[in-house]
Design brief:
The protein has a domain of about 90 residues. The chain is α/β, with parallel strands linked by helices and about 350 residues long. The two termini are about 40 Å apart. Helix 3 packs across helix 4. Strand 4 and strand 5 form a beta hairpin. It has an 8-stranded mixed beta sheet, sandwiched between helices. It has a 4-stranded antiparallel beta sheet with strand order 2-1-4-5, covered by helices on one side. The longest helix is centred in the middle third of the chain and has 18 residues.
Amino acid sequence: MSGEPVLQARDLRVYYGTPGKPVRAVDGVTLDIGESEVVGLVGESGCGKSTLGRGILGLLPEGARADGEVIYGGRNLVTLSPRELRRLRGPDLGLVFQEPMTRLNPLLRISDHFHETLKQHEANLSDDEIRRRSLETLGRMGIPPTRFNQYPHEFSGGMRQRIMIALALVLRPKLLVADEPTTSLDVIVEGQILALLADLKRNFGTALLLITHNLGIVAEACDRMAVMYAGKIVEEGPVREVFADPAHPYTRELLRSTISLETTELHSIPGAPPNLIDPPPGCRFHPRCPDAMRVCAQLVPIEQRLDGGRRVQCWLHGPERLIPADGEQPLEREAIGVADEA
């Protein structure tokens, strides 16, 4: 990433309240997103990806609590009032939701959606200017003006997703969070959406946080990637470097689980992500990790900086010398692994 980041998350935490302990859905995340940069956020379902995206934008349900820092424009979004956040969402911070059919009001025409969105943030716009800007943005998404007054049910899934992206872009945000923008789309439409995301960088200069399960999309569309597991980012760096030489065992296992033309047998990661109400001690991946050592079950890994601007939280990368507290036994790097632990 070159230049100053558009957004900086520092030790961001998001908890959901329960009758017992809170669910630590995002637990100490640090992440920068630069201008015109596409950052892919990957990980299994339930690892906190969508909560991180919503936590950045302040779109959390009742009973959820966030702390830490999300710095945008010199202000900490976590401490802003709901009214101040609403002013930023749209003109500065945009969101593309999953499942566009559930986000578009079936009783409103597409033109009504754009009119409502623009009037909410730019009340002085004339109807002619609203129509011009709406059609211009829809045109960039490949939606012809003849369909401006149609209802959501008259569009295919791929076109509805384009409309959702256009609704987010019509206010020209500096940062866009796209949560699974290609879910349930066929590969042809998926490719079209990826081309649109590439246009965001060229034509809008938009910074993009792309939340996805699809590592192929990350390889195609992203500059950097962050790998999330059990509420934490365990590895982050340029896409090419991470794909070529994954530093964290979880990243390596995710990449091994993808299917390509060279795939001869299927691979999966044993077990499942932990319960975020009571996650395991030490490294949260250690109960499933083939490279686990005894220290992994005892201490949370210390973040290490690697070459090429990469960072990783894994005891395989140091520090080499662990100094125990007075009276404690030295921590051991003896391998245990999934098979040995079983």
